[in-house]
Design brief:
Helix content is about 25%, strand content about 20%. By secondary structure, the protein is of the alpha+beta class. The protein has a domain of about 80 residues: Phage tail protein beta-alpha-beta fold, CATH 3.55.50. Strands 3-7-6 form a 3-stranded mixed beta sheet, with helices on one face. Strands 1-5 form a two-stranded antiparallel sheet. The longest helix is centred in the middle third of the chain and has 13 residues. Keywords: Signal. This is Toxin co-regulated pilus biosynthesis protein Q.
Length: about 130
């Protein structure tokens, strides 16, 4: 017993009906094998942020950063305006939230940013801090 295999070239003609159907099809686009490699970019979230603090009052330095990088129009400073930064120092972090936390935490302060372009700098209350065991 012999198995009969249909010719592979006949199958497309049977599916489309006739040879004239092939003639009506648009030509295939050429295969493009060239590859363009885009320059490597670092996502915005992965870039480090930095802030240079100078010796002097903390309030005007933080207010300037909030105005420049967060477009804050009003800062309600509910902590002492007499806090001073001791020396010139560059603070680096992976995000602005982390950077501001590093600056404010030693003073026991926190920053709250509101949607209406205002911010509040206040002391952390015992219930605001991390749970202590």
């Amino acid at each position: 017993m012999y198995l009969v295999k249909p010719a592979v070239s006949i199958i497309p003609l049977l599916l489309l009906g006739s040879h004239s159907a092939w003639a009506q099809l648009p030509p295939c686009q050429p295969l493009n094998t060239s590859v363009e490699i885009a320059p490597a970019t670092v996502p915005e979230q992965a870039k480090k942020v930095a802030m240079l603090l100078r010796e002097g009052l903390l309030k005007p330095q933080l207010t300037a950063i909030l105005e420049k990088h967060f477009n804050i129009h009003l800062v309600d400073w509910q902590a002492s305006p007499h806090h001073r930064w001791p020396s010139e120092y560059r603070v680096d972090a992976w995000s602005w939230a982390e950077l501001l936390s590093r600056v404010l935490e030693p003073y026991g302060m926190q920053l709250i940013i509101h949607a209406n372009r205002s911010a509040v700098v206040r002391y952390r209350f015992p219930t605001d801090s991390k749970q202590q065991s």
